[in-house]
Amino acid sequence: MTTSGYFLDVESSALGRPWRPRLDSGGELRALAIAQVGGQDELIARVLAGRGVEPEAVERYLDPTLRELMPDPFVMRDMAAATERLKRAVEQGERVAIFGDYDVDGACSAALLSEYLVACGCETIVHIPDRVTEGYGPNVEAITGFAAKGAKLVVTVDCGAVSYEPFQHACRLGLDVIVFDHHQAPETLPPALALVDPNRQDDLSGLGNLCAAGVVFMALVALNRALRESGFFSGREPPDLLAALDLVALATVADVVPLTGLNRAFVVRGLQVMRQRRRPGLTALFDVAGADGPPRPYHLGFMIGPRINAGGRIGDAALGARLLTTSDEIEARAIAAELDRLNRARQVIEIEALAEAEAEALFSLGLEERGAAVVVAGANWPPGVVGLLAARLKERFGRPAFAFSLAGAHATGSGRSIAGVDLGKTVRAAVEAGMLVKGGGHAMAAGATLARERLGEWRAYLEETLAAPVARARAEASLHIDAAMTAGAATAELAHRLEAAGPYGSGNPEPVFVLPRHRVTDVMAVGADHLRVRAVAGDGAVIEAIAFRAAGKALGEALTRLRGSPVHLAGTLGLNRYGGRERAQLRLVDAAEAGR
């Protein structure tokens, strides 16, 4: 397909990036072997080879098992101490306080732990902080409240790795603290009986890709084993851990951790659980969101996750955890309806805030869009939408972005990064240097709080710190193409086979195909800012395509300008389920002029 090292010789596409074949010469040989030995057709073989699958591992990859991929939970630092303390809490029927984060991962983690402990006879107090009045992570007031309610053990999930003062307060009150987190942790850890975090600097488990719910699930496997060995379940059935994989799958997709290895198995098995519709809260949310067909990663990332997050962004942060733990179908439908309402309200707020944020970013970067990072701030932006703004700005400008709310005493913000630039490490260094009041996160996403008057200093710090890695990452940024196909080959049957080779997501990219020299016949606006595109191949075969959030942007302008001309169209193949019918649909991610 190329003589220049570029796919179809595309050196600069509509989005200004080169196209390169995903497979190198070794990958081509691997694809050939997968097709010949594994019995896969050429296209699927190329997809599998592009994700590093060896010919002898194809069957295991397509049907991953937890039994094979699950390591011993005790390889994680402090897991033994955490298990022993939780075992004692269960055996003595203690009241356990669970403090979670206000996002999907936090809600799923809190629900996972609470559900298991309640099934074992414990009483739990689940507390999800208010984003505005409490902020991120454990706080002294919440700890005091747990003690007043009779808790002897506090477990933090998806937070706690940097909570010094609240844990010192817990010690003074005689409370034991266990932390299950996955964010980057400082060298000096806060005082806790056990701090289980695969991203603490002295953890050698190699499980740093897990989300918090994945860490909690590992802890429950360890606890389940310990209780079984002690005879606690004698004469009764232990809780069904496999039935809880729906929560692990949801958190894994929504928190955008790499869908490889164990995480991929979590999602494959979790989606199977979801299809049984046994959890009233998830069933109600799928229904209110209008999800089509069986649950897929797309539903979790773009329909279910945003609705659960909406509670923490502009409403009651505890709604998500309550929805996921309720067994009452009527309550589940009521909470799902409220989260759906909040999500619609969040979308309106986001549209208005994004217009302001983009204008500020353009002014800051200048006409030539120079700069290593985007930093914007707004007095009227709710703290709950700044993460969404940062994500949109990162997509729009192709560099790390931070958005800050000035609604409180401090500037409270969230950042999103590009591949190859570790934002969590950058934020932790700034905290240790005294520039930030607090902050933390992981490579692709981080939170930061600082004095308003230091925003300019923060911009300068990011420019200096990120200039080299951002320049390197942007220079290496290419669209990697799995294969070329024609409109006639893009069938619903092929989309199903591609879906079966998934799930795809962070670290396990969705296959990208190019339709060479297809003529764009129609470009029509749909929804707020999407474009519906119709293209015709040389043999007359027609394909429908959708370009999300492309109206008024570089891709949309290119498609409109090139209407009637031969165009190379790049996208991912999916299914459009409408009116009881399934049709293949290309989700456009880029385009390039093909020449006459």
- Rg is 24 Å
For the report, how would you describe the main beta sheet?
Answer: 5 strands, parallel
Q: Please mark out the parts with pLDDT under 50 across 5 or more consecutive residues, or reply none.
A: none
Count of individual helical segments: 20
Distance between the termini: 18 Å
Q: Please provide the count of β strands.
A: 18
Coarse structural class? alpha/beta
Mean pLDDT over the full residue set: 93
The shape is: globular
Strand residues, percent: 15-25%
Instruction: Describe the strand arrangement of the main beta sheet, using strand numbers.
Output: 3-2-4-5-6
Helix content: 40-55%
Care to describe what's here?
- With 596 residues, the protein is of the alpha/beta class.
- It has 20 helices and 18 strands.
- It has helices spanning 25-37, 42-50, 58-62, 66-69, 79-91, 104-119, 140-148, 164-172, 212-229, 245-254, 261-274, 280-289, 297-314, 319-325, 329-365, 386-397, 423-432, 455-476, 492-500, 554-561; strands at 19-21, 95-100, 123-127, 153-157, 176-180, 194-196, 374-378, 401-405, 411-416, 438-441, 445-450, 479-481, 483-484, 513-526, 530-536, 542-547, 566-578, 581-593.
- The strands form 4 sheets. A 5-stranded parallel beta sheet has the order 3-2-4-5-6, with helices on both faces.
- Strand 7, helix 16 (386-397) and strand 8 (401-405) form a beta-alpha-beta unit.
- Helix 6 (104-119) runs antiparallel to helix 10 (245-254), helix 10 (245-254) packs across helix 11 (261-274) and helix 10 (245-254) packs across helix 13.
- The longest helix has 37 residues, at 329-365.
- The two termini are 18 Å apart.
- The mean pLDDT is 93.
